[in-house]
Write the structure tokens for this entry.
Amino acid sequence: MGKLNIKINGKDFEAEEGSTILDVARANGIHIPTLCHHPQLSIHGGCRICMVEVKGLPKPVTSCTTPVTKDMDVQTDTPVVIKQRETVLELLLSDHPLECPICDAAGQCKLQDLTHEYKIKGNRFNGEKRKVPVEEVNPFIRRDYQRCIQCGRCTRVCDEVRGIGAIQFANRGFNTKVSTAGDKVLDCIFCGSCIQQCPVGALTEKPSKFKYRPWETKQVETTCGYCGVGCSLTLHVKKNEIVRVTSREDGTLNKGNLCVKGRYGYEFVHSDKRLTKPLIRKNGVLTPSSWEEALSYTARKFKEIKQRYGPDSLGGFSSAKCTNEENYLFQKFVRINFETNNLDHCARL
Amino acid sequence: MSNSLHDLDEADVFLVTGSNTTEAHPIIGMQIWQAVRHKNKKLIVIDPRKIELTKYAAMHLRQRPGTDVAVFNGLARVIMEEGLADLDFIKDRTEGFEEAKEVIMKYTPEVVEKISGIPKEQLIEAARIYGKAERASIYWAMGSTQHINGVRGVHSIVNLAMLTGNIGKPGTGVNPLRGQNNVQGACDMGCLPNQFPGYKPVNVPENVERVEKVWGVKVPAKPGLTLTEMVNSMGKEGGIKGLYIMGENPMMSDPDLNHAKESFDSLEFLVVQDIFLTETAELAHVVLPATSFAEKEGTFTNTERRIQRVKKAVNPPGEAWEDTKIICALSKEMGYPMEYPSASKVMDELASVTPIYECVSYEYLDKGIAVHWPCNSCSIDRTSCGTLIMGTPVLHEEKFTRGAGKFMAFEFQPSTEWPDDEYPLILTTGRNLWHWHGGSQTRKVSSLNERSPEPYMELNAADAKKMGIRDSEEVRVSSRRGEITLKAVVSDRPTPGVVFIPWHYKEAAANILTINALDPQAKIPEYKVCSVKVEKTGGGQKEANRYSHYPG
Ligand code: SF4
Ligand code: SF4
Ligand code: SF4
Ligand code: FES
């Protein structure tokens, strides 16, 4: 691919041939708002929020679909495009329920952010709003298409990235909506990639409903504890409770995509069945005890057995679920304190 | 894995065997699918079950469970016969080819068809696709290894890669998918009876010296027993009397659970450190409350040898302690005090005794650099997609770790149990998408439980018809070792004559049925083949599953 030069907002930039105006702007830190565009997905060009003006062209163009050409001269924030973006937003808002106080996306909603950025007040398009019932029969995903802005990111990620194609656009015109084949109850791999793509609150995590507001949470970057792929997880934590799991797209092997276990399998952490105290079997029954008692009793018993039957009568199973640090210390413990190499874990199981 | 996920899609042909990738390693399954769909790569699946991947595979070879050695020998033979072998690679990089050839040449497509049931035309075609590929990679998982001849099966897979020079380049390689999040790391850390950290044999004086220097005490140099050997020794003269288990639940994961229970019951002292009162903890004399992945600092090493950070997000409940704290406190009681101010300091020490982790430290990991072992240099590279990389994403680039790659070919050997009149079906166990291992975590997640609430057995439609079993009907499955009752799901996923049971559900633990037969080298139990019979209980048809068996 060759290189060419273009101008954005009066500044010169080198651009890869075949890239779009949006690509070049993003690569150089120039902000153009987008809704339907996502770098992992095919180009849709439907929302028209990313309009820019190009010198010599009669009308503004969508920057996410327009390839750069030699010596192109682009303006990203002229009064004309700002006016157009305002119109796009007003149109979207005219058919949006505006129930931000009870929407899980509030605070992380692109529509909210852009409405704020473009200072949209009042509403010139107070027309009829669609009435679409909420679909939440499944345990994972709440689909509230009244909030849908029809950007098509969910349908594209499901088809192009996940290979499932569980949801598509159905009907036309005013009644267009995202739907499953035959408008049946959603029955898919529940990977949640569509939720992560949704720029508004149309798709949200059902287990997280009413649990948090985004600004109340801290985010912790960690690694999934289930399979050996090792996806990166972002745990959203509110007051010592994990309330949601997402994943970063940059620098991670899974590029923001997870499976159902990684995204939803965190509830066990807060299960009331968790062990909270050491237990010692007394008269045949496991009885709560102090750490002090449990540790000294355990050490005494191990030492007794070692003395009576020799080191090779002791053994340790470590865990493929535990961390490297824990496994390292465990084998060190067994080799030094038990004085045996009777040591294994369930790699084979 | 010899290669990494960074270069996965550089393969032209993927050969996946013994891995239901879309359910057991979903994101790798997704990446393989993407390569097929968006980059026109070819996929060959060799698996008895009609798993999800077969939907977009160019070929699906359906072997009888347990016949992999014959199938891979057969593929190798066709590749040689058709002149598709990479003779330069064989000459320069390998040894033992002539001996292996003698074995391999016996496996004509006709012989393989007879043993495995794979039509000979299919075998030849698959061998051609693999053999002609510029770059081909092989992926496998427990479906290949959990057999009494599992190690032989793996050698026969590796033979195929060496024969075609598909090693040491991006998009090639021999890539076992490790099951649990940190199986790789637990092995790396030396939680093995015969190896210190970094796969250093315990009976080599130099290796003993290395750890003794850092630990400051003597360590035993005699190899110990494997997990399954320890379980088998319990209750016997000279066997294991006292056991310390951290975060394992053998009472769900061991084969032949009735026998395993007897073994654990015979222990004089059993300590289980876990986050739940698991089936194993219920048998313990002392139970120590530990922490989940969200309550501690540390690292996991994934299937592509990439070391990644685990971070503390919440406090542990009640008086539960971090596992490292428990181990150190117990060690002090035993007379060897251990103290570490942070997990990062543990990493620094382990890096000093684990040569493959030499340059690993939290400093790099916390910068988001992709660190793959062996990591013996601190130089940082950048991949084509901009990821910063340290260490070795592709193994064996110039030479194999042990010098020349050794061809090792073996004769096919039948499984321990084979169907007969009394137990006419083959049982194979495995995983599904919704749950994890013995279920101690995922069965406590309400959404996952709602999606997949109960145990079930996949039964081929033809077998179901013969036995008069309807979909969702309650059945009793029994083997020579025990029986369980669950729901039959009738489909065309298993081959006729084979039933499949996921082992996540304690109400009908599949491992009550499995056989305690081990691969002589790896000591892996033969989970993938034992014989069972299936009968109606008369309990009738239960409510059908609300969701499809595998959607999409
Ligand atoms: S959860 Fe995943 S599979 Fe289901 S609709 Fe969303 S993207 Fe598609
Ligand atoms: S549900 Fe969300 S992602 Fe899907 S089309 Fe509507 S707004 Fe876009
Ligand atoms: S999110 Fe799914 S695929 Fe990724 S590591 Fe976790 S269990 Fe594996
Ligand atoms: S972002 Fe360009 S049209 Fe939607």
Q: What stands out?
A: Chain A touches chain B through 113 residues (CB under 8 Å).
